[in-house]
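call fold(seq) -> tokens
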Amino acid sequence: MSAPLFFDSHMHTPLCKHAQGHPILYMQHGLERGLAGIIMTCHSPMPNGFSSRVRMAPEQFGEYVALVKEATDAAPVGFDVLLGMESDFFPGMEGWLRSLHARAEFHYILGSVHWHIPEYIDAFWHGDTIRFQEQYFTHLAESAESGLFDCLSHPDLVKNAAPADWNFDRIEPTIVKALDRIAETGVAMELNTSGMNKSYVEMNPGPRMLSLMAERGIPVVIGSDSHSPDRVGDQFEGALAHLSEAGYENVSVFRERKRYDLPIIDVLASLIQQEPVAM
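ret:
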């Protein structure tokens, strides 16, 4: 086992109203997992009550920054707690997000298309599952092209909208078009291990989409999407194995909005092996 090297780059705080645990607890679990640091990425505030049930209010933004700083200050030497954010891409909200991202010194901004929030369903669900899936991947490509984000989170999340109707062969042409557009932007994409706990039991993205990403040279960041401290670094060894199987040699991390690539073999050697967290 080598020195700590890797980060968990996706986790939340109680301000989003559906997570638990102070960032200091996430930091402590990151230490136990053999990580070099964590990036807090709570759900961005949005204007006019948009999706307010699952995110901090706009007036809580300063509280969020201060909460992360408490963990940063409490972390031991050699372990980093960095400020990030998971921001929703929704057509028409680009100006709001651009201003929001300028309000703090972020290290990492995740872009998410959350198909399941009521506002997205109201705008884009018209009774056709296939069309809804196609629209999701179009928005994923548009989110990369917006220039707002460093990485796109859980990029096939829509497969959980109707798991019984998810057919990769059928949607593959749409995914290929989206990935071609994303690859042109240089934006990274996330391998999110929390998919193993969702209705379609598979990491986000699944192996076939991950291979298509590898073919296009799209960088990948791993995140647990932790909503409780005990999930920090969960199933990272498996995620790294999936990356290798898809054809990747490196995995990425961000600092100061810049991407750094690490050899997968070195990251694997740095992680402390332990039993999977019981859910």
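The longest strand covers residues 80-88.
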